[in-house]
Amino acid sequence: MRDPYATLTRHAWLQPDVWQSLQERQRVMARLFVELGWLDLSHRQALELGCGTGGNLLELLRMGFMPSHLKGIEIDEHRHAHAREVLPSSLDLIHGDALGDEAQRVIAPLSQDLVLQATVFSSILDGALQVHLADAMWHWVRPGGGVLWYDFTVDNPYNLKVRGVPVARVRQLFPQAHLHVRPVTLAPLVARWVCRRNPALYHVFNALPWLRTHVLIWATKPLDEPESTQAGRVNKNEPA
Question: What are the distances in angstroms from CA 121 to CA 93, 129, 201?
Fold first, then answer.
Protein backbone atom coordinates (compact mmCIF):
# COMPACT_ATOMS: atom_id res chain seq x y z
CA MET A 1 0.00 0.00 0.00
CA ARG A 2 1.33 3.45 -0.92
CA ASP A 3 2.41 5.61 2.03
CA PRO A 4 -0.04 8.58 2.05
CA TYR A 5 2.54 10.73 3.87
CA ALA A 6 5.44 10.06 1.52
CA THR A 7 5.11 13.35 -0.39
CA LEU A 8 4.95 15.50 2.76
CA THR A 9 8.01 17.23 4.17
CA ARG A 10 9.33 15.98 7.50
CA HIS A 11 7.86 18.85 9.52
CA ALA A 12 4.56 19.21 7.63
CA TRP A 13 1.59 19.67 9.97
CA LEU A 14 -0.24 16.72 8.38
CA GLN A 15 2.51 14.31 9.41
CA PRO A 16 0.98 12.24 12.26
CA ASP A 17 3.99 12.66 14.53
CA VAL A 18 3.90 16.45 14.01
CA TRP A 19 0.22 17.08 14.70
CA GLN A 20 0.21 14.74 17.69
CA SER A 21 3.18 16.50 19.29
CA LEU A 22 1.55 19.91 18.61
CA GLN A 23 -1.75 18.81 20.12
CA GLU A 24 0.05 17.40 23.16
CA ARG A 25 1.74 20.76 23.76
CA GLN A 26 -1.57 22.61 23.27
CA ARG A 27 -3.26 20.43 25.88
CA VAL A 28 -0.49 21.09 28.40
CA MET A 29 -0.68 24.84 27.71
CA ALA A 30 -4.46 24.83 28.12
CA ARG A 31 -4.17 23.05 31.48
CA LEU A 32 -1.50 25.54 32.55
CA PHE A 33 -3.73 28.53 31.82
CA VAL A 34 -6.57 26.95 33.80
CA GLU A 35 -4.24 26.24 36.73
CA LEU A 36 -3.10 29.87 36.65
CA GLY A 37 -6.73 31.00 36.77
CA TRP A 38 -6.40 32.61 33.36
CA LEU A 39 -9.88 31.63 32.26
CA ASP A 40 -10.34 34.77 30.15
CA LEU A 41 -7.29 35.23 27.94
CA SER A 42 -8.74 38.13 25.96
CA HIS A 43 -7.15 40.78 28.20
CA ARG A 44 -3.76 39.09 28.59
CA GLN A 45 -0.69 40.58 26.90
CA ALA A 46 1.67 38.09 25.26
CA LEU A 47 4.84 38.22 23.20
CA GLU A 48 6.73 35.56 21.27
CA LEU A 49 10.48 35.76 20.83
CA GLY A 50 11.43 34.24 17.47
CA CYS A 51 7.87 33.82 16.19
CA GLY A 52 8.92 32.30 12.83
CA THR A 53 6.03 32.05 10.39
CA GLY A 54 3.43 32.72 13.08
CA GLY A 55 2.25 29.23 13.99
CA ASN A 56 2.48 29.66 17.76
CA LEU A 57 0.80 33.06 17.65
CA LEU A 58 -2.06 31.48 15.69
CA GLU A 59 -2.36 28.91 18.49
CA LEU A 60 -2.61 31.68 21.08
CA LEU A 61 -5.32 33.38 19.01
CA ARG A 62 -7.33 30.16 18.90
CA MET A 63 -6.98 29.84 22.67
CA GLY A 64 -8.57 33.24 23.20
CA PHE A 65 -5.83 35.89 23.13
CA MET A 66 -6.76 39.05 21.22
CA PRO A 67 -4.64 40.07 18.20
CA SER A 68 -4.12 43.59 19.55
CA HIS A 69 -2.66 42.09 22.74
CA LEU A 70 -0.13 39.88 20.95
CA LYS A 71 3.32 40.71 19.66
CA GLY A 72 5.95 38.73 17.79
CA ILE A 73 9.63 39.27 17.08
CA GLU A 74 11.30 37.60 14.10
CA ILE A 75 14.74 38.36 12.71
CA ASP A 76 14.46 36.37 9.46
CA GLU A 77 12.98 38.45 6.64
CA HIS A 78 11.19 35.60 4.84
CA ARG A 79 9.67 34.10 7.97
CA HIS A 80 8.57 37.54 9.13
CA ALA A 81 6.91 38.19 5.76
CA HIS A 82 5.07 34.85 5.91
CA ALA A 83 3.85 35.58 9.44
CA ARG A 84 2.64 39.00 8.35
CA GLU A 85 0.53 37.35 5.63
CA VAL A 86 -1.22 34.88 7.92
CA LEU A 87 -1.66 36.95 11.09
CA PRO A 88 -4.18 39.76 11.70
CA SER A 89 -2.94 43.26 10.92
CA SER A 90 -3.68 44.39 14.49
CA LEU A 91 -1.08 41.92 15.79
CA ASP A 92 2.22 43.77 16.12
CA LEU A 93 5.10 41.98 14.35
CA ILE A 94 8.61 43.30 14.84
CA HIS A 95 11.16 42.50 12.16
CA GLY A 96 14.56 42.49 13.77
CA ASP A 97 16.66 41.50 16.74
CA ALA A 98 15.00 41.08 20.13
CA LEU A 99 17.89 43.09 21.57
CA GLY A 100 17.61 45.81 18.93
CA ASP A 101 16.29 49.34 19.20
CA GLU A 102 12.92 48.57 17.56
CA ALA A 103 12.02 45.84 20.04
CA GLN A 104 13.11 47.96 22.97
CA ARG A 105 11.03 50.87 21.67
CA VAL A 106 7.83 48.90 20.99
CA ILE A 107 7.83 46.60 24.04
CA ALA A 108 7.54 48.40 27.35
CA PRO A 109 9.19 46.98 30.47
CA LEU A 110 6.89 44.94 32.74
CA SER A 111 4.15 44.99 30.07
CA GLN A 112 3.67 41.31 29.24
CA ASP A 113 1.74 38.62 31.08
CA LEU A 114 3.47 35.96 29.00
CA VAL A 115 6.69 35.89 26.98
CA LEU A 116 7.06 32.74 24.87
CA GLN A 117 10.10 31.12 23.34
CA ALA A 118 9.84 27.85 21.44
CA THR A 119 13.09 26.13 20.38
CA VAL A 120 14.92 29.44 20.08
CA PHE A 121 17.49 29.01 22.83
CA SER A 122 18.58 25.56 21.62
CA SER A 123 19.66 27.31 18.39
CA ILE A 124 21.82 29.80 20.30
CA LEU A 125 25.24 28.33 21.01
CA ASP A 126 26.64 31.52 22.55
CA GLY A 127 26.08 31.39 26.31
CA ALA A 128 26.42 35.14 26.76
CA LEU A 129 23.80 35.81 24.10
CA GLN A 130 21.44 33.40 25.87
CA VAL A 131 21.85 35.44 29.05
CA HIS A 132 21.18 38.76 27.28
CA LEU A 133 18.02 37.40 25.63
CA ALA A 134 16.78 35.86 28.88
CA ASP A 135 17.34 39.20 30.63
CA ALA A 136 15.32 41.00 27.92
CA MET A 137 12.47 38.50 28.24
CA TRP A 138 12.43 38.83 32.02
CA HIS A 139 12.53 42.62 31.73
CA TRP A 140 9.32 42.55 29.66
CA VAL A 141 7.37 40.25 32.01
CA ARG A 142 5.21 41.93 34.64
CA PRO A 143 5.21 40.53 38.21
CA GLY A 144 2.76 37.64 38.42
CA GLY A 145 3.32 36.81 34.75
CA GLY A 146 5.96 34.53 33.37
CA VAL A 147 8.12 33.12 30.63
CA LEU A 148 6.63 30.17 28.75
CA TRP A 149 9.53 28.02 27.61
CA TYR A 150 9.38 25.13 25.13
CA ASP A 151 12.65 23.55 24.07
CA PHE A 152 14.55 20.30 23.99
CA THR A 153 16.87 19.30 26.79
CA VAL A 154 19.18 16.83 25.01
CA ASP A 155 21.64 17.31 22.19
CA ASN A 156 20.75 16.24 18.66
CA PRO A 157 23.69 14.15 17.32
CA TYR A 158 22.47 14.73 13.75
CA ASN A 159 22.42 18.53 14.01
CA LEU A 160 25.49 20.26 15.42
CA LYS A 161 23.87 23.69 14.92
CA VAL A 162 21.66 23.17 17.96
CA ARG A 163 22.30 22.23 21.56
CA GLY A 164 19.90 20.94 24.19
CA VAL A 165 19.07 23.29 27.06
CA PRO A 166 18.73 21.33 30.31
CA VAL A 167 16.44 22.53 33.07
CA ALA A 168 19.48 23.47 35.17
CA ARG A 169 20.46 25.98 32.47
CA VAL A 170 16.96 27.48 32.48
CA ARG A 171 17.32 27.98 36.25
CA GLN A 172 20.58 29.84 35.58
CA LEU A 173 18.95 32.04 32.95
CA PHE A 174 15.98 32.92 35.18
CA PRO A 175 17.35 32.72 38.74
CA GLN A 176 14.48 34.75 40.24
CA ALA A 177 11.77 32.58 38.67
CA HIS A 178 9.69 29.81 40.18
CA LEU A 179 9.81 27.01 37.59
CA HIS A 180 6.97 24.60 36.85
CA VAL A 181 8.43 21.92 34.56
CA ARG A 182 6.43 19.52 32.40
CA PRO A 183 8.25 16.95 30.20
CA VAL A 184 6.57 16.76 26.79
CA THR A 185 7.07 15.59 23.19
CA LEU A 186 8.08 12.10 22.19
CA ALA A 187 11.62 12.11 20.79
CA PRO A 188 11.16 13.13 17.12
CA LEU A 189 13.21 10.24 15.71
CA VAL A 190 11.16 7.76 17.75
CA ALA A 191 7.90 9.53 16.90
CA ARG A 192 8.55 9.38 13.15
CA TRP A 193 9.52 5.71 13.37
CA VAL A 194 6.46 4.59 15.34
CA CYS A 195 4.00 6.76 13.40
CA ARG A 196 5.14 5.23 10.11
CA ARG A 197 3.96 1.92 11.50
CA ASN A 198 0.82 3.13 13.25
CA PRO A 199 0.04 6.72 14.32
CA ALA A 200 -1.80 5.42 17.38
CA LEU A 201 1.53 4.21 18.78
CA TYR A 202 2.60 7.81 19.46
CA HIS A 203 0.65 7.90 22.74
CA VAL A 204 1.87 4.44 23.75
CA PHE A 205 5.53 5.40 23.45
CA ASN A 206 4.98 8.91 24.80
CA ALA A 207 3.66 7.41 28.02
CA LEU A 208 7.30 6.56 28.82
CA PRO A 209 8.74 9.76 30.36
CA TRP A 210 12.36 8.95 29.41
CA LEU A 211 11.41 9.07 25.72
CA ARG A 212 10.32 12.72 25.96
CA THR A 213 13.01 15.12 24.78
CA HIS A 214 11.38 18.52 25.42
CA VAL A 215 10.05 20.45 28.38
CA LEU A 216 7.31 23.02 28.72
CA ILE A 217 8.29 25.35 31.55
CA TRP A 218 6.31 28.13 33.17
CA ALA A 219 8.81 30.46 34.82
CA THR A 220 6.79 32.71 37.10
CA LYS A 221 7.97 36.20 38.03
CA PRO A 222 7.23 36.77 41.75
CA LEU A 223 4.83 39.56 42.65
CA ASP A 224 7.49 41.02 44.94
CA GLU A 225 10.20 40.97 42.23
CA PRO A 226 12.81 43.70 42.99
CA GLU A 227 13.43 46.33 40.35
CA SER A 228 17.00 45.22 39.64
CA THR A 229 17.40 41.54 38.81
CA GLN A 230 20.64 41.65 36.83
CA ALA A 231 23.12 41.11 39.66
CA GLY A 232 25.11 37.90 39.71
CA ARG A 233 24.96 37.26 35.96
CA VAL A 234 28.66 37.59 35.21
CA ASN A 235 29.50 33.94 35.73
CA LYS A 236 26.37 32.53 34.13
CA ASN A 237 27.37 32.89 30.48
CA GLU A 238 28.08 29.23 29.78
CA PRO A 239 25.56 26.39 29.60
CA ALA A 240 25.41 23.97 32.50
Answer: 20, 9, 30
